[in-house]
Write a structure and sequence with these properties.
76% of the residues lie in helices and 0% in strands. It has four helices and no strands. It is elongated, with a radius of gyration of 38 Å. By secondary structure, the protein is an all-alpha fold. The protein has two domains: 7-85; 112-147. α1 (11-44) packs antiparallel against α2. It has helices spanning 11-44, 49-85, 98-107, 112-143.
């Protein structure tokens, strides 16, 4: 009997969690210093175009990383919840009573000759059906306007 696949042993699951946390942390690490620098320069009135416009581009990139990381963590949590809800049911194995099987085989002997007759009869029926189909096909072909 095979053991159910555990989510805690899945490399793909842990790669998703690790990449999501890394993306979230990287986005926060990129955005916080730039927001602080922009705020200081704008309040002091000494902000240049480099601090303001380049800082906005970095913060936009960081926001994308934070969003991707948050989405990955949400997906990992949803996957863990779904795996918990859809638990694998144990496989029930029925005990085989070999003695009852042997008694049933002894009680009803098989006649090999009957099985061969049946097989021959089925082959004859298939051959008759094929002959009938061929006759119908020839009749239909001879009656079609294209054959005239």
């Amino acid at each position: 009997m095979s053991r159910p696949h555990r989510l805690s042993r899945s490399v793909a699951y842990w790669a998703l969690v690790f990449a999501s946390v890394l993306s979230l942390a990287g986005g926060v690490a990129l955005s916080l210093p730039r927001i602080g620098t922009m705020e200081e320069m704008l309040l002091a009135g000494t902000a240049t175009g480099v601090e303001v416009y380049v800082g906005q581009a970095w913060i936009t990139l960081a926001a994308g990383l934070v969003g991707a990381g948050a989405l990955g963590i949400i997906l990992a949590l949803a996957l863990a919840a779904a795996k918990t809800l859809v638990s694998s049911r144990p496989v029930v194995v029925e005990q085989i009573d070999w003695e009852a099987e042997a008694e049933a085989d002894d009680a009803e002997p098989h006649d090999v000759a009957e099985e061969d007759d049946t097989a021959q009869t089925e082959a004859d029926v298939r051959k008759d059906d094929a002959d009938e189909f061929a006759d119908d096909f020839r009749d239909a072909r001879s009656e079609s306007p294209a054959s005239r």
